[in-house]
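Q: Entry one of two.
A:
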Amino acid sequence: MRRMWPDEFNAIIDDAEEVVLESPAEPGEAPLRRKALKARIAMEDYERIWPLAEMRFRLGEGNFSGKAITLITTNPHYHTWHPKDGGSLEAVSDSGRHYKKDYIVVHFLLDDVRETSPA
């Protein structure tokens, strides 16, 4: 089954930074390296994408077209890259009201999508 990333969350992916995750290996083995996307997003957005966690989605149009992503949340192999506090921003709205916006840093595994054609 091919699940496409919901268009309503494309802004999260468009603002993400491409990084390489490197997890330590056992002695004598090479470390595991994976491409990923790192994004600092508003807590409200994180709460909206939480149901999509640990599922693989294909990306449509945009910077990462032809790729697939998986939001890391509970995978023990990627514990270092589980969601973390991304700080907060305090500001004043146009009406003069003070507010605070919380952020969280998330990582998405990033894979190439390879299509196979029928024989």
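Q: Entry two of two.
A:
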Amino acid sequence: MSFLLTPLIALLLCAPKYIDGTMTPGEVVQAAAAFVVVQGAFSWITDSSGAIAEHRYCWR
């Protein structure tokens, strides 16, 4: 569900610069895509924290 809202949040954050004319539509789309990739990377860390902790515990 959160990754459905991520592009919308990115577009809302870029909207002022697009309205001012300092960002082109292509730059807005690229920024939204980058925002989604970064959010996915952070969610992988939090989603995998249990497996990472379990792996660390096994190597003690």
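A: Comment on entry two: The chain is about 85% helix and 0% strand. The CA atoms of residues 50 and 56 lie 10 Å apart.
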